[in-house]
Amino acid sequence: MLLLLLAACGHHIPDPGGTVAAMPSFSTSLAVCRAEFATGTLPAGMVVAHHALKEDVPSTQSGLLLVHPGGTWLVDGGMSLAYQTSMREVKGLKGLFLREAAKGWTRLGTPEEVIRRVGILPETLTGAILSHAHFDHLGGLLDLPGVPIWAPPEELAALDSMLPAEARALAPRGHPISFDGPAVGPYPSSWDLFGDGSALIVPMSGHTPGSVGTLLRLANGRRVFHVGDTVWVREGYEGREPKGWLASSFDNDRDGTDLQIQRLWKLHQVDPDLLILPAHDRRQWEALFGASECIR
Ligand SMILES: [Zn+2]
């Protein structure tokens, strides 16, 4: 109980003032499908500070499949099947915490099975984008052999310190993202994945050195912004709230994470139609997909 009370403590993120540009909108030929690898529950006091949530939140480890005439890409791969074995290498309290935290997830199949279930052949994947290289986003790519993995150079360079065994196995498949495109909304640069503006990758350094966000403009006109683990739940950007104390300890750079949360908070104010999708907030995935596996 004491740990839960402590976990809900946290600092306050100030209103940064000023305004931000909304994210752009136009029609494209991009469809998205959801590959849900595992489900679980996030403790209310841990995922967002100051008791902004009264009840635990249904959580997910999901991959977002981007289906486009230019190729099929996966954003995030969930947790490796060999996770518990590979995490024995991480010693001390951190290792213990990570091994215990992973036991709360219920797998819905191997990454390959889950992707096949939504009608996509894993062997046809063009590449995978990492929102960031933590175990519950990266490891599943071990079970999708041969798929090239794209992330900013600073994220690829930091792989070893985060997830030693899985990083060693996946490092040869890493390709550096260079943000050579223009500013988008409050983000200073971008990478246009398909060259038509339908999927823009933007830098969101904070939770990890090379965290990225993925802005999608779907064929049906909907706009979606996958923000990785910058926030774990929508209350984080709605209320400008950091994660709770315990979860914040996994943010690589607290000031950088606060800056990203301020940007999301402002974006939500100026652009409420944009669906902001924290990687683990299952309520937001349900808001996007409902009972459908794909949105075309
Ligand atoms: Zn995560």
Short description:
This protein is an alpha/beta fold and 296 residues long. It has helices spanning 2-7, 44-47, 83-86, 92-102, 111-117, 135-138, 153-157, 159-162, 164-170, 234-238, 245-248, 254-270, 282-289; strands spanning 31-42, 57-68, 71-75, 106-107, 127-129, 149-151, 174-176, 191-192, 199-203, 212-217, 223-226, 275-277, 294-295.
* Secondary-structure arrangement, i.e. CATH architecture: 4-Layer Sandwich
Rough shape? globular
Strand content: 15-25%
Secondary-structure element string: HEHEEHHEHEHEHHHEEEEEHHHEHE
Query: Number of folding domains?
Result: 1
Q: What is the CATH class designation?
A: Alpha Beta
What helical percentage do the residues reach?
Answer: 25-40%
Q: What is the C-alpha radius of gyration, as a whole number of Å?
A: 18 Å
Total strands: 13
Count of helix runs: 13
CATH superfamily descriptor:
Ribonuclease Z/Hydroxyacylglutathione hydrolase-like
**pLDDT < 50 runs, ≥5 residues:** none
Q: Within the CATH hierarchy, at the fold level, what is the topology?
A: Metallo-beta-lactamase, Chain A
Distance between the termini: 45 Å
SS-derived structural category: alpha/beta
Oligomer: single chain
Bound molecules: zinc ion
